[in-house]
C-alpha cells in the first residue's frame, strides 16, 4: 500500500495507518538486512568448505592415480585401471559441484535481497534475478545427471549392469527434484512480474 494518498490527506485515521505502514516497512527491511547477513555468512562458509574439500581430496586423488598406474599392464586390468583413474575425479567433482551450485544460488539470492533493499519489492530486476535462479537450478540438474551417469558407467566393470540401472533410477529421481524446484521458482518470477505490473498501474493512478 502506498503512503502518498494517506499523507496527502492527514486525517487521524490516515496518520495512524501511515505510521503502521511505515513501522511495518521498517521492520521488514530489518529482517531482509538480517537475512542478507546470513546469506553473506553462508557464502563465505561454503567457499571455505569448497577450498577445504579441494585441499583434502587432492592427496586422495593422487593416491588412487598412483594405484592405477601400479596395476599389471595387462588387458584384463584395463577396465579396473580406468575405474581407479577416473572414479576419484568424478566423486571429487560430485562433492564440490553442489557446493559451487549453492554458492552461485546464494549469490543471486543476495542480489535479490539487495535489490529489495534499494528498490523495494516488485521490480523488473528482481524478476530477471529470480528467473536466473530458476535457470541455475535447471542447469545444475543437468550437470548432476551427467556426473551421476558417468559415475554409474564407471561401475560397470565392477558391479555389472544391474548396479548401473539402480544408479540411473537414483540419478533421475534427484534430477527431477531440481527440475520441479526450477519450475516453482520460475512461477514465483511470474508472480513477481504480475506484482510489478500492479505496482506500475497503482503509481500511474496516484
Q: What is the topology?
A:
Layout: H1 4-8, H2 12-69, H3 78-119, H4 124-154, H5 156-159, H6 161-205
Helix pairs in contact: 2-3, 3-4, 4-6
Provide the descriptors you would attach to this structure in a database record.
about 210 residues; mainly alpha
Short description:
By secondary structure, this protein is mostly helical.
Runs with pLDDT <50, length 5+?
Answer: none
> Mind describing the biggest β-sheet?
none
Strand fraction equals under 5%
Distance from N terminus to C terminus (CA atoms, Å) equals: 11 Å
Structural overview:
With 206 residues, this protein is mostly helical. 90% of the residues lie in helices and 0% in strands. The protein has 6 helices and no strands. The longest helix has 58 residues, at 12-69. The relative contact order is 0.09. The mean pLDDT is 77.
Amino acid at each position: 500500500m502506498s503512503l502518498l494518498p494517506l499523507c496527502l490527506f492527514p486525517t487521524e485515521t490516515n496518520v495512524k495507518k501511515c505510521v503502521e505502514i511505515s513501522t511495518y516497512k521498517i521492520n521488514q527491511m530489518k529482517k531482509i538486512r538480517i537475512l542478507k547477513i546470513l546469506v553473506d555468512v553462508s557464502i563465505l562458509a561454503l567457499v571455505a568448505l569448497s577450498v577445504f574439500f579441494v585441499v583434502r581430496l587432492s592427496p586422495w586423488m593422487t593416491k588412487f592415480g598412483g594405484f592405477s598406474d601400479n596395476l599389471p599392464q595387462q588387458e584384463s586390468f584395463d577396465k579396473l585401471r580406468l575405474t581407479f583413474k577416473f572414479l576419484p575425479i568424478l566423486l571429487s567433482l560430485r562433492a564440490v559441484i553442489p557446493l559451487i551450485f549453492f554458492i552461485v544460488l546464494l549469490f543471486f539470492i543476495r542480489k535479490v535481497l539487495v535489490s529489495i533493499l534499494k528498490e523495494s519489492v516488485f521490480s523488473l530486476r528482481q524478476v530477471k534475478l529470480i528467473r536466473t535462479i530458476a535457470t541455475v537450478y535447471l542447469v545444475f540438474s543437468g550437470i548432476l545427471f551427467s556426473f551421476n551417469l558417468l559415475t554409474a558407467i564407471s561401475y560397470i566393470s565392477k558391479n555389472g549392469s544391474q548396479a548401473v540401472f539402480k544408479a540411473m533410477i537414483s540419478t533421475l529421481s534427484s534430477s527431477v527434484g531440481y527440475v520441479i524446484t526450477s519450475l516453482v521458482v520460475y512461477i514465483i518470477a511470474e508472480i513477481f512480474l504480475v506484482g510489478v505490473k500492479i505496482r506500475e498501474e497503482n503509481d500511474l493512478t496516484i
